[in-house]
Design brief:
about 350 residues; alpha/beta; 8-stranded parallel β-barrel; two-stranded antiparallel sheet; 10 helices; 14 strands; about 35% helix
Length: about 350
C-alpha cells in the first residue's frame, strides 16, 4: 500500500490525578508544538480526578490548533447533557473538539449513581452507540443559519430551522432539539476504542476515529479491514474511518532497544500493547506499520507523561518530520481538517421538519 497516505498521530496527556490546569496546558502545548492531530484525556467513574471534559475546556483557550478529545462515559449519563457539553467544547475551542465514548462496567461505578445495576458489556456498548447516534442528531437539530439575532424584530431563532430528533433508544429517548447551536465542526469528532469485541459494532457504525490495540502490523491490518467492511455494510464510506494503533510507550532509556516481541510489533503488556525503547526505535515502528498499510496512525500513551511526551515530540516526531513522513504544521484549524474529514451535512436541513422553540 502507498505510503503517501497522511500519517495521523495523537497522544494521551493523562496520568496520576492532577488538579492544576498548568500541567495539562503544558502537555497540550507540547503536543501542539509537534503538530499532533489531537490529545486525549482519559476519564472514568472508577477513579478520582477532575472531569476530563471540563479540564480540556480549560485547555482550549490556552491552545490554538491541537484537537482536544476527552473520554466521556455514556453509562449513567444523559445523552442530551453529553451532547451539549461536547458541543460547548467545540465552540470554546473553535472547532477542535472530539470525544471518546466509553462505558462503565462495574457495580462500584453503578452504586455511585444508584439508579441501576451494572449491565453486560454488549448492552452497554449498544447504549453507547445509541448515545453517539442521538448526539449526532442533536448537533444537527439546529441548522447552521438557525440563529437570526435580529434586535429590531426581537427574533433570535428561525423556528423552522430547529428540529425535533425524536430519538428512541433501548434505554432512553430524546426529543430535542439541542440547547446549544450546531457546533463549528457540524459534529465534533467521535472516537471509540474498538479493541474489545462489543465495541466494534458502535465503532464501525458511529466513530470517525477508532483506536485499536494490536500485537503486530498484520493483526492491526486485519482488524482495520474488518472495521472498514463493517462501516461499508452500514452505508458509510470506509475511507472516512481513521484507524489508529493504540500503543503505551516507555521512552525512559533512549539508548535501550525495544524489548523483543511478536514479529514486526511491540510485546503485549497488561491490557494492551507496550513499547519500551528510544525515540528512534519508535519512529521506525511507526514508519513500518504505516508504510505497510496496517493503520492510519498511532495513539500514544506515555508511561511518564512529561518525560515521554517530550521525547515523542522532540525525538520521534522530529525524525518523522525530517523524513517527510509527518507534517510540520497543522494545515487547518479544526480537528476534522487535521484528520482529513469533511464537515458533515446537516441531515435535517432539507427535511422540512420544523420544531423547537425561539
Amino acid at each position: 500500500m502507498s505510503a503517501t497516505r497522511p500519517l495521523h498521530l495523537a497522544a494521551e496527556i493523562g496520568g496520576p490525578p492532577r488538579y492544576d490546569a498548568a500541567s495539562h496546558v503544558a502537555l497540550a502545548r507540547l503536543a501542539e508544538k509537534g503538530a499532533l492531530d489531537y490529545v486525549t484525556l482519559n476519564d472514568s467513574f472508577a477513579r478520582p480526578g477532575p472531569d476530563a471534559l471540563a479540564v480540556l475546556a480549560r485547555v482550549a483557550p490556552a491552545t490554538t490548533r491541537i484537537g482536544l478529545v476527552p473520554t466521556v462515559t455514556t453509562t449513567h449519563t444523559e445523552p442530551f447533557h453529553v451532547s451539549s457539553a461536547v458541543a460547548t467544547l467545540d465552540w470554546v475551542s473553535r472547532g477542535r473538539a472530539g470525544w471518546q465514548a466509553d462505558v462503565s462496567t462495574t457495580e462500584a461505578e453503578a452504586r455511585l449513581f444508584g439508579r441501576r445495576p451494572a449491565a453486560p458489556a454488549a448492552a452497554l456498548w449498544q447504549e453507547a452507540g445509541e448515545a453517539a447516534d442521538a448526539g449526532a442528531r442533536l448537533w444537527d437539530s439546529w441548522e447552521d443559519d438557525a440563529e437570526i439575532r435580529d434586535v429590531a424584530t426581537g427574533r433570535f431563532i428561525d423556528r423552522d430551522k430547529l428540529h425535533y430528533v425524536d430519538f428512541e433508544g433501548s434505554t432512553f429517548s430524546v426529543r430535542g432539539p439541542a440547547i446549544v447551536p450546531r457546533p463549528p465542526q457540524g459534529r465534533p469528532v467521535t472516537v471509540i476504542d474498538g479493541t474489545s469485541g462489543p465495541a466494534r459494532e458502535p465503532a464501525a457504525r458511529h466513530a470517525d476515529v477508532v483506536h485499536l490495540r494490536a500485537t503486530s502490523p498484520e493483526h492491526a491490518a486485519s482488524l482495520r479491514g474488518e472495521l472498514r467492511r463493517a462501516a461499508a455494510a452500514h452505508g458509510r464510506d470506509p475511507g472516512s474511518l481513521r484507524v489508529l494503533a493504540a500503543l503505551t510507550v516507555d521512552l525512559g532509556d533512549a539508548e535501550t532497544a525495544p524489548e523483543p516481541g511478536l514479529p514486526g510489533g511491540p510485546p503485549s503488556a497488561g491490557q494492551g500493547t507496550y513499547f519500551r525503547g528510544g525515540p528512534v526505535d519508535l519512529a521506525e515502528l511507526i514508519t513500518r506499520w504505516h508504510r505497510g498499510g496496517a493503520v492510519d496512525g498511532f495513539h500514544l500513551t506515555p508511561v511518564t507523561p512529561r518525560r515521554d511526551l517530550e521525547r515523542i515530540v522532540n525525538g520521534t516526531v522530529a525524525l518523522l518530520q525530517h523524513r517527510s513522513l509527518f507534517r510540520t504544521f497543522h494545515p487547518g484549524g479544526t480537528l476534522r481538517e487535521h484528520l482529513g474529514l469533511g464537515r458533515p451535512a446537516n441531515r435535517y436541513a432539507h427535511a422540512g421538519t420544523p420544531g423547537g422553540t425561539s
